[in-house]
Amino acid sequence: MDGIARGEVVQAASAFVSLMQNGGELGTIERWFEVAAGCEPRQRVEWAAANVVFAELTACQSQWRRAVEERTVGESTYLNEIRTEGEMKGRASSLLKLLGRLGAVPADLEAAIRACKEQQKLDAWFDVALDRPSIEEFRQRTGL
Is the pLDDT of residue 124 over 70? Predict the structure, then answer.
């Protein structure tokens, strides 16, 4: 971290601090935040997220997660997009699982549901499926 602070080591190396010796110690994490404060905000957020992910490999993820959550490191558009995409995939999968209880879900219906990127629409379709209509009635009520 001192090398990064002095400019002797590229700032991108800070994304791997959690993998380094003593990477999960509070002092190391605190030093990371001190040095990272001088980084561009978007990079700081992405490197903080990388440290949390990599920390799983060294059994110090809970320390990094807690430290990152306690501090405002900003928002990352990229990470938000990934999170949103994951949420939409999860909603679509849940809807398809529910519809599967009504019968075989046709491939075109499955493709249309998986292609949907609107949370409100998926939620509305899920509500229709909760009424336990037939697959055909589901199609009629949702326009799919």
Answer: yes
Q: Are 84 and 27 in a shared domain?
A: no
Q: What is the model's pTM?
A: 0.53
**Which residue among 70, 91, 113 closes a domain?**
70
Residues contacting residue 142 through CB under 8 Å, at least 6 positions apart: 124, 125, 128
Q: Which two tokens stand for residue 73?
A: 């490191």
Among 76, 119, 61, 74, smallest CA distance to 94 is for 119
* Domain of residue 26, residue span: 2-70
Q: Are 79 and 46 in contact (CB under 8 A)?
A: yes
Write down which residue in 49, 70, 91 finishes a domain: 70
